[in-house]
Design a protein that fits this description.
Elements (H helix, E strand, L loop, with lengths): L1 H15 L22 E12 L1 E3 L5 E3 L5 E16 L2 E18 L2 E10 L2 E11 L2 E10 L5 H4 L16 E14 L9 E14 L2 E7 L2 E8 L2 E14 L3 E13 L3 E6 L2 E6 L4 E14 L2 E14 L1 E2 L2 E12 L2
Antiparallel strand pairs: 1-4, 1-20, 2-3, 2-19, 4-5, 5-6, 5-7, 7-8, 8-9, 9-10, 10-13, 11-12, 12-15, 13-14, 14-17, 15-16, 17-18, 18-20
């Protein structure tokens, strides 16, 4: 009975909120385009932790059952410049999650690790100055998730993917505020406003799970999203050091819906759209020819139906080969 209660509680917790909000399409977007045949590699380490979530009214509330969760992501990306105005790439990621909850004075630890979901993308420059790029992207559900939701995983195993395909159309770019004073391409503006905006269409997913010998079929229609990351970027030391301050997050569009069927009886539950807004102070440092290091702190300031997670990211961006 305790295991059944724990499973139901954990399913509710995992399904109610997004398991951490690091988004490789927005949290480390790059505006600059490079010369033809340039190949760029990047890798990051992102650590997130949460013990509370924003409820329907936007109030931050502690997880039930003394729940605590954390997640480590290591996204690794490669980008190829087809031309100075066209580039394509992919981002794969290793994910390690952990969650702790207490039911009837018994504390249980859950964890999961492995290769997560994968993003494919292409970017096209529409305008060079001010820079405006259009981006198309798709997320493939390469991270394991079926065993968890279908109840065949080990009792303490968490999914590292979300089991659904996402399609996205977006823009990113830069508006100069003051003129540049250095030789690095990033010195084009002492102060600039950078942004990344997009619409994400999230396809349905379905699965089944069994509790006490009874099988339930589930079909989920997640809400779509309008995503954003924007704010000023300031040149502090020409060719060496930049600082930025962004607001980032998303607004849910459309009511998510979950249809469950048990013993031939169906029940449909509609939810409200989720949302989240973070503040991101960060930096970028030129560590060598064609190699940059950056990092930021991501702190939640408001949201609905979303975990109130804090993220710390550090990594390398723009290590390039070619022209």
């Amino acid at each position: 009975m305790k295991q059944m209660i724990a499973l139901i509680t954990l399913l509710s917790l995992v399904s109610a909120v997004s398991l951490f909000a690091f988004d490789p399409m927005y949290d480390n977007f790059e505006v600059i385009m490079y010369k033809k045949n340039t190949i760029r590699f990047n890798a990051y380490l992102d650590y997130a932790m949460a013990s509370a979530a924003f409820d329907s009214s936007g109030t931050k509330t502690d997880y039930s059952n003394d729940g605590k969760s954390s997640c480590i992501r290591i996204p690794v990306g490669i980008t190829y410049s087809v031309s100075p105005a066209i580039e394509a790439g992919l981002i794969a990621q290793f994910v390690s999650k952990s969650m702790e909850m207490t039911v009837n004075n018994t504390t249980t630890d859950y964890s999961g690790s492995g290769i997560g979901d994968t993003w494919l993308f292409a970017k096209f420059m529409l305008m060079p100055d001010p820079t405006v790029n259009v981006r198309v992207a798709g997320k493939l559900p390469t991270g394991p998730w079926h065993d968890y939701y279908e109840g065949t995983a080990a009792n303490d195993e968490l999914p590292v993917g979300d089991g659904q395909i996402d399609l996205e159309l977006g823009l990113n770019g830069r508006f100069p505020i003051t003129a540049g004073r250095g030789s690095d391409p990033r010195d084009d503006d002492v102060i600039a406003a950078e942004y990344s905006l997009g619409f994400r269409y999230r396809l349905n997913r379905s699965y089944s799970y069994e509790i006490a010998g009874t099988t339930t079929d589930v079909e989920e229609t997640p809400g779509n999203q309008l995503l954003y990351s924007l704010g000023p970027k300031i040149l502090i030391s020409p060719g060496k050091f930049w600082g930025f301050l962004r607001l980032a997050g998303y607004f849910g569009i459309g009511d998510p819906e979950t249809k469950t069927t048990t013993n031939g009886t169906s029940n449909t539950v509609k939810g409200d759209p989720s949302s989240i807004m973070y503040i991101q102070p960060g930096f970028e440092f030129k560590a060598g020819v064609g190699f940059y290091v950056n990092g930021f702190l991501q702190y939640p300031i408001m949201g609905k139906y979303h975990e109130a997670d804090m993220n710390i990211l550090f990594g390398g961006i723009g290590m390039k080969f070619g022209h």
